[in-house]
Amino acid sequence: MKQEIKPATGRLGVLVVGVGGAVATTMITGTLASRKGLAKPIGSISQLATMRMENNEEKLIKDVVPLTDLKDIVFGGWDIFPDNAYEAAMYAEVLKEKDLNGVKEELEAIKPMPAAFDHNWAKRLNGTHIKKAATRWEMVEQLRQDIRDFKAANKCDRIAVLWAASTEIYIPLSDEHKSLAALEKAMKDDNTTVISPSMCYAYAAIAEGAPFIMGAPNLCVDTPAMWEFSKKMNVPISGKDFKSGQTLMKTVLAPMFKTRMLGVSGWFSTNILGNRDGEVLDDPDNFKTKEVSKLSVIDTIFEPEKYPDLYGDVYHKVRINYYPPRKDNKEAWDNIDIFGWMGYPMEIKVNFLCRDSILAAPIALDLVLFSDLALRAGMCGIQTWLSFFCKSPMHDFEHQPEHDLFTQWRMVKQTLRNMIGEKEPDYLA
Ligand SMILES: NC(=O)c1ccc[n+]([C@@H]2O[C@H](COP(=O)([O-])OP(=O)(O)OC[C@H]3O[C@@H](n4cnc5c(N)ncnc54)[C@H](O)[C@@H]3O)[C@@H](O)[C@H]2O)c1
What we know:
Strands 5-4-1-6-7-8-13 form a seven-stranded parallel β-sheet, sandwiched between helices. With 429 residues, the protein is of the alpha/beta class. The protein has helices at residues 22-35, 45-48, 61-64, 85-92, 97-101, 104-108, 136-153, 180-188, 197-207, 224-232, 246-259, 276-281, 284-302, 308-311, 356-376, 405-420, and strands at 11-17, 50-52, 58-60, 73-79, 113-114, 156-163, 212-214, 236-239, 263-273, 315-322, 331-339, 345-353, 381-382. The protein has 16 helices and 13 strands.
């Protein structure tokens, strides 16, 4: 049955945490350039993908689903450095100056608000543009005020908040994250060891009725307390960790081995990366958060308990090495040891010379636009259908995450079809 979806009227304020970062500035520049006709939004599902309708016609998703138009987006955000988005993009060195210059004025007008930051959560960072807050609760209050002020000043109808800031240190789920009451108490008690800055942004967004998207692997909204809060406030949440390069490959290759019933004995993944993200991840506590996110993928696809002969003993290792000369141009190597008929071994080598932020930018934009759509469609809590974009898809304790890219893609289309009251086409017809 067709869902009631509020139209995408008025402006959508997109507030990016880490607005001066490589992913954020690349996403913003590409969006501004696309709407001026200076670039094509390559890699964006919301802008370029089609889906087959009940009558077998292929339609552009954005023509059949009421997504916010790129021209109605206003960007803002927070960062620990005061540089405007133009200066920050120059520093990130992802895009060429000539590409930035096409939207220079718009980028210069994006000036970050002071960040909610705690050095203990990202020890490699030393920012100066930071809020003073006596407690985590006060941090939340200040962020809520920022959201309200931005919304009013820019005459926005709706807001979406996207975390594209650095990865925080790894923390396990603790009692303070298990209910909304416990979370709020910990914020008021200023328990800074279990309440991260990202949790303050998420809480503030949800409290202000804005969808929250977690682009890093931080625990943040992936807790029962936040699931409870997002449902209470009728707000969609999604994450975690943009599925951009190496993991994208993994979630394509692993389903292929499984579909053909080929065995896997080992998967070694290593990366060199020289941007600020790589520098932050050089700290073992921050790397641990990323490692957990990257490692989770294979097991759920292979289901070793069902196929012990094929996947009962997979040695899986992930490494990220900070190597400054490469900047944002990450190089990833995968060595996969597989085996076939009668157990005979084979090897596959993948060498992906990618551009990290070029891959992540369209994912960030799509997550924002689809989260805003979900909000208008009255969908709240974890948006499982957005797992397609995430390395470590959020799920509650009753469900398993879905990692297979093709199953995830079907989930996207099925959700969109349900929204507009379309049935799945008959592919054999
Ligand atoms: N690029 C990719 O392919 C990719 C893929 C998956 C996930 N990610 C994640 O996305 C995030 C951004 O990546 P990036 O390459 O743009 O990194 P980056 O270091 O260039 O940008 C992060 C920005 O966040 C800011 N920041 C840090 N803590 C903050 C806080 N508490 N409040 C506000 N701003 C804060 C930093 O000053 C910086 O400008 C990282 O967590 C990264 O792990 C990136």
